[in-house]
Every structure is written in C-alpha cells, then in structure tokens.
Amino acid sequence: MEMFRDYKKGGYNLEGTQVTDQRLISLIILITLADNSALISGEKIKRKGVVKYVCRVK
C-alpha cells in the first residue's frame, strides 16, 4: 500500500507528470526500480543493526 501512495501523491506524483503511453510505462518501470533499490538498501542497513543511525527525513 505504501508504494501506491508514493506513486500517487506521496512523493513521485506520477499523475502530475501527465505522460502517456510508452513514456508512462518507462517512468513506472524506472520508479519501481528506484523504489526496490531503496527497499533493498534499507533491509541491508536493518540487518547490519545500524537502524538507530539512519532515519527518514520528515
């Protein structure tokens, strides 16, 4: 559910880009790769036990 919110208004504002067709598909793929990369990096940090030193900027 977090990913859906991020795509809409939570950060990527995908609707605001107003791209269509192939460019929209390319943008979604790029955002998905970036999101998964961030998720994997976060999991690695979590496993190392340094979570208390890394936080999300609010």
Order of helices and strands: HHH
Output mean pLDDT. 78
How many domains? 1
Looking at the structure, what is the overall shape?
Answer: elongated
Helix and strand composition category: mainly alpha
In whole angstroms, the N-to-C terminal distance is 19 Å
Count every beta strand, where a strand is a DSSP E run of 2 or more residues.
0
Low-confidence stretches: none
- The Rg value, from CA coordinates, equals 14 Å
* Helix content range: over 70%
Count of alpha and pi helical runs: 3
Note the main sheet.
Answer: none
Question: What proportion of the residues form beta strands (DSSP E)?
Answer: under 5%
Describe the protein.
With 58 residues, this protein is mainly alpha-helical. The chain is built from 3 helices and no strands. The protein has one domain (2-48). Helix content is 71%, strand content 0%. The mean pLDDT is 78.
Compact overview of the structure:
71% of the residues lie in helices and 0% in strands.
Descriptors for this entry?
58 residues; mainly alpha; 71% helix; 0% strand; elongated
